[in-house]
Design goal:
Layout: H1 2-14, H2 26-98, H3 100-119
Helix pairs in contact: 2-3
C-alpha cells in the first residue's frame, strides 16, 4: 500500500497524474497501462488526422490559386497569339492584293509539294 501511495505521489508531483499508478496487482497495472496507451494512441491519431486536414486544405487553396494564375496566363497567351495571327493574315492579304499572280503561283507550288509528300 505504501508503494502505491508513493507511486501516485511521484506521478502527481511530476505532472503525469493522468497516467495509471502501480497498484501492486500486475494484471491490473498492465490493463491500466494498456488502457492508458489506447487513449494516448487515440489522441495521437486525432492529432495526425487534424494535421492532415489542415495540410489538405492548404494544398487545395494553393492549387486553386495556381489554377487561376495558369488560366489567366493562358488567356493572355491566347490573346497574343490571336493578335499575331490577325497580323499575319493582314500581311498575307496585302501581299495577295499587291501581287496576285505571284500569290497564285506560290499557292500552286505549295499544293504541288503537298501532293508529292502525301503520295509517298
Amino acid at each position: 500500500m505504501a508503494r502505491a501511495t508513493a507511486a501516485r505521489t511521484k506521478a502527481d508531483v511530476s505532472g503525469a497524474s493522468d497516467r495509471p499508478g502501480a497498484t501492486g496487482d500486475i494484471g491490473a497495472d498492465v490493463e491500466a497501462q494498456i488502457s492508458h496507451l489506447k487513449g494516448e494512441m487515440a489522441k495521437l491519431a486525432e492529432a495526425v488526422s487534424n494535421a492532415g486536414s489542415v495540410i489538405a486544405t492548404d494544398v487545395k487553396g494553393n492549387a486553386r490559386v495556381r489554377s487561376r494564375q495558369l488560366r489567366q496566363t493562358s488567356q493572355e497567351t491566347l490573346a497574343d497569339l490571336r493578335e499575331q495571327l490577325d497580323e499575319i493574315e493582314r500581311q498575307v492579304s496585302g501581299h495577295v492584293r499587291e501581287r496576285p499572280l505571284a500569290s497564285i503561283a506560290a499557292a500552286a507550288g505549295v499544293g504541288f509539294l503537298i501532293a508529292l509528300l502525301t503520295r509517298r
